[in-house]
């Protein structure tokens, strides 16, 4: 299915790619990418000859009915790995464990250090968990990746995708073997994550914001709620005038 999905994406959207030579032909590596769109996990594997495994909510694989089975088949076909979010440790520990297993098999593991999609196209602070811990526990090289314009293909609320060419820039591998086994040191985890995010910023050209994307989303939601409340109060005042 990867071949059919990848071929269809390349034929339809014709993504441009720079730096393919930085992805090893064999052996383990971590692809650390910015995250602009739901489609990022499909476009990146589509342009590579090797399989890339990303993590996805387990719900995508367990939904009943025909639609659920088709969704599960699609996600499996494009290299998505189900992760159980239940339990006291949540998805974070499950994702780290899954990533380490992928690396141990000598494969490519894809991860989004921001932890969620950017709410406004800017690059947000990387979370010092999954990426750094998998890298330091395994010694695998980290390859920074920048997705370009993928958020413009299908903005929130738009049903039909826009036919345009997204881009992918792949940077040189980063070697963190000097920190091997130090995945329990939070200062080292922060340093590794920040170094990777800096390389992604250079590749993507995005404005960097030194807060987490989850916090930015809360701020945006709070501001929108406040705006709606203000409009409601204004309308109420007008009607009572």
Q: Any overview of this molecule?
A:
With 241 residues, the protein is α/β, with parallel strands linked by helices. The protein folds into 2 domains: 3-209, Glycerol-3-phosphate (1)-acyltransferase, CATH 3.40.1130; 212-240. It is 44% helix and 15% strand. The strands form 2 sheets. It has a 7-stranded mixed sheet, with helices on both faces. The chain has a two-stranded parallel ribbon with strand order 6-9. α1 crosses α2 (40-46), α5 (90-104) runs parallel beside α6 and α6 (130-138) crosses α7. The longest helix is centred in the C-terminal third of the chain and has 28 residues, at 213-240. The model has no long low-confidence stretch (mean pLDDT 86). Residues 29-150 form the Phospholipid/glycerol acyltransferase domain. Residues 213-240 form a coiled coil. It holds the Pfam family Acyltransferase. One of its GO terms (cellular component) is plasma membrane. Keywords: Acyltransferase, Coiled coil, Transferase.
């Amino acid at each position: 299915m990867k071949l059919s999905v990848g071929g269809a994406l390349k034929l339809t959207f014709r993504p441009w790619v720079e730096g393919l030579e930085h992805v090893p032909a064999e052996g383990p590596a971590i692809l650390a990418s910015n995250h602009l769109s739901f489609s990022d996990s499909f476009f990146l594997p589509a342009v590579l000859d090797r399989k890339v495994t990303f993590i996805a909510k387990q719900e995508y694989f367990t939904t009943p009915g025909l639609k659920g089975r088709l969704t599960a088949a699609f996600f499996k076909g494009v290299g998505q790995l189900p992760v159980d979010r239940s339990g006291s440790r949540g998805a974070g520990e499950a994702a780290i464990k899954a990533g380490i297993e992928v690396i141990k098999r000598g494969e490519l593991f894809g991860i989004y250090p921001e932890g969620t999609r950017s709410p406004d196209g800017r690059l947000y602070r990387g979370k010092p968990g999954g990426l750094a811990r998998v890298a330091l526990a395994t010694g695998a090289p980290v390859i920074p990746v920048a997705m370009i314009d993928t958020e413009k293909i299908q903005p929130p609320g738009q049903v039909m995708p826009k036919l345009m060419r997204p881009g992918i820039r792949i940077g040189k591998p980063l070697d963190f073997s000097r920190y091997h086994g130090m995945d329990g040191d939070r200062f080292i985890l922060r340093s590794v994550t920040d170094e990777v995010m800096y390389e992604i910023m250079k590749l993507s050209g995005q404005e960097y914001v030194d807060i987490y994307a989850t916090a930015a989303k809360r701020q945006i939601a709070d501001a929108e709620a406040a705006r709606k409340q203000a409009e409601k109060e204004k309308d109420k005042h007008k009607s009572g005038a």
